């Protein structure tokens, strides 16, 4: 019988899997349900945990269509490391880059309660490790690095398997550069206004010198903003066209404001 696969955001469980003690009709029915569910959903494997059963049972579909039944599996040895993009039915079509053991050795029992062992490498080793995660009430999210988890949480938020370069965030580092530019220009406006209350020519001359430095600094910041914004924009291809227009428009407005500030500063400070 085909069973419903538990999917995010429904929690799997906080329980650990329990070892099978009785090899009876209940167990055999569970195994058949796992096989039917694998076939129905075109999957490579399923853990009993994924259909809401807490027995330590994993069923893997072989390339020839036959099934490998692992009851009470346990990882006893491993070697090597490999990082690959993985998907799991719990998170639907979402994927993440996970680092796992490249080679694993397991012991388990088959449906006849016979003790068996298995050595696996490559894709099969990764698949088995992913299914073993479920026996501890976990998913591959617990295996992610901090950076990969941050990316994956964004995928969960957007509900689609997008990479960091494929979505358009609402905030950028370049916004901080723009904020620094605006703060500097506000200080420059304050300097111009303050100079109106100064009558001594030497002080005004000194203020004009400071203003000149500030103008050059803000101009350099604008150039840096444009260069960095271009670099940052290339990381988010999904909205590159809108970003280019926004970057150019923002730069144009900033330079207009700086030009007006230069003219006002010159007539108020530089002509004294």
Structure explained in plain terms:
The protein is of the alpha+beta class and 272 residues long. Helix content is 47%, strand content 19%. It folds into 2 domains: 25-160, Peptide deformylase (Peptide Deformylase, Alpha-Beta Complex), CATH 3.90.45.10; 174-270. The protein has a 5-stranded antiparallel sheet with strand order 1-2-3-4-5. The mean pLDDT is 86.
Which features would summarize this protein structure in a list?
272 residues; alpha+beta; Peptide Deformylase; 2 domains; 5-stranded antiparallel beta sheet; 19% strand
The ordered H/E elements are HEEEEEHHHHH
In the predicted model, the low-confidence regions spanning at least 5 consecutive residues are: none
The fold-level CATH name of the largest domain is Peptide Deformylase
Structural class: alpha+beta
Nearest-integer average pLDDT: 86
Shape: rod-shaped
| Distance linking N and C termini | 91 Å
**Strand arrangement, major sheet:** 1-2-3-4-5
CATH superfamily of the largest domain: Peptide deformylase
CATH class of the largest domain: Alpha Beta
CA-atom Rg in angstroms: 31 Å
Helix content: 40-55%
| Count of alpha and pi helical runs | 6
Characterize the biggest β-sheet.
5 strands, antiparallel
Strand percentage lies at 15-25%
Topology (SSEs and partners):
Elements: H1 25-41, E1 45-47, E2 57-61, E3 67-87, E4 95-109, E5 115-121, H2 122-134, H3 146-158, H4 174-195, H5 201-233, H6 240-270
Antiparallel strand pairs: 1-2, 2-3, 3-4, 4-5
């Amino acid at each position: 019988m085909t069973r419903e696969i538990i999917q995010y955001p429904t929690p799997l469980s906080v329980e650990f899997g329990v070892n099978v003690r009785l090899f009876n009709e209940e167990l055999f029915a569970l195994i058949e349900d796992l096989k039917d569910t694998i076939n129905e959903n075109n999957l490579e494997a399923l853990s009993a945990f994924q259909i809401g059963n807490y027995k330590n049972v994993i069923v893997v579909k072989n390339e020839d269509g036959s099934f490998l039944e692992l009851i009470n599996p346990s990882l006893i040895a491993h070697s090597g490391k490999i990082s690959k993009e993985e998907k799991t039915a719990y998170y639907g079509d979402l994927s993440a880059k996970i680092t796992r053991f490249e080679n694993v050795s397991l012991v388990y029992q088959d449906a006849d309660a016979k003790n068996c062992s298995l050595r696996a490498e490559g894709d099969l080793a990764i698949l088995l490790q992913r299914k073993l995660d479920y026996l501890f009430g976990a998913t591959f999210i617990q295996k992610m690095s901090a950076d990969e988890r941050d990316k994956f949480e964004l995928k969960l938020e957007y509900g689609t398997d997008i990479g960091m370069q494929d979505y358009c965030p609402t905030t950028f580092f370049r916004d901080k550069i723009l904020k620094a530019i605006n703060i500097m220009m506000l200080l420059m406006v304050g300097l111009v206004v303050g100079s109106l209350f100064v009558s001594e020519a030497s002080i005004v001359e000194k203020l004009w010198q400071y203003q000149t430095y500030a103008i050059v600094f803000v101009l350099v910041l604008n150039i840096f903003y444009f260069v960095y914004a271009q670099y940052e924009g290339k990381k988010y291809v999904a909205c590159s066209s809108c970003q280019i227009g926004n970057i150019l428009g923002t730069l144009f407005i900033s330079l207009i404001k700086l030009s007006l500030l230069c003219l006002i500063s010159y007539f108020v400070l530089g002509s004294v």
